[in-house]
Amino acid sequence: AEEAAARTGSKKPKSELTPDERKAAKLVRSHSKVAIRGESKSASRPRSRSVAGLRDESMVRSADKLLKKQQRQRNLHGKVGESDRVITMKKEKWMLTGKRGIGK
């Protein structure tokens, strides 16, 4: 029982402790790593990328409104989006490769 008390950090003065109790008392940590970690401030989560550059909720709503409006216009006109743009002018390779004569 005394050894258990020494391991849990008993309040006896060091002079009254037996050599075994002193050794056990040295092994006891005053603060465990888990307790210290629990007291530390947690890292804040980054904002989602959809609202990263927007100041407040009203800006988020207005940005969503503009997004839907622009998307609706594209859908009505049947136009492709930015990522689907292609170079429409294709030139035949057989016409443009090699040496070009005077008449071309």
Automatic annotation (TrEMBL):
Q: Where is this region: Disordered?
A: 1-56
Name of the protein in question: Uncharacterized protein
Compositional bias annotation for Basic residues? 25-34
Q: Which organism is it from?
A: Diacronema lutheri
Q: What is the lineage of its organism?
A: Eukaryota, Haptista, Haptophyta, Pavlovophyceae, Pavlovales
Return the Basic and acidic residues bias intervals: 13-24
